[in-house]
Amino acid sequence: MKTETILIEKIISITTLIREKHPELMIFLEEMPVTIPNENDPKLNLEALNNYYNSLISLLKKYEIEHPF
Predict the structure, then answer these.
(1) How far apart (Å, rounded) are the C-alpha atoms in residues 35 and 15?
(2) Mind listing the pLDDT tens digit for each residue in 33-60?
(3) Total structural domains in the chain?
(4) How far apart are CA 61 and CA 67, in angstroms?
(5) What is the pTM of this model?
């Protein structure tokens, strides 16, 4: 449970960073397949949270490489 809480906090943190520094990326967050559950009653699990967090990191790094300040 503690690990899930830590991942959720990290997801919130990176999402906030994206929202504040690169709001143009917010449209991609809405389109990410990991955010769209394909079950009627999706359960949060460690793997799904970790995959989502990694996808956010990847999106941000790629964007910052392609659009340096």
Answers:
(1) 13
(2) 555 455 555 565 888 889 889 999 999 9
(3) 1
(4) 10
(5) 0.76
pLDDT of residue 32: 66
Q: Which two tokens stand for residue 11?
A: 């997801």
Range of the domain at 20: 2-66
Q: Is 16 exposed, middle or buried (0-12, 13-18, 19+ CB in 10 A)?
A: exposed
Burial class (CB in 10 A: 0-12, 13-18, 19+), 14: middle
Q: Give me the chain's average pLDDT, please.
A: 83
**32-41 long-range contacts, Cβ below 8 Å, gap at least 24?**
32/59
Q: Shortest CA distance to 52 belongs to which of 14, 2, 1?
A: 14
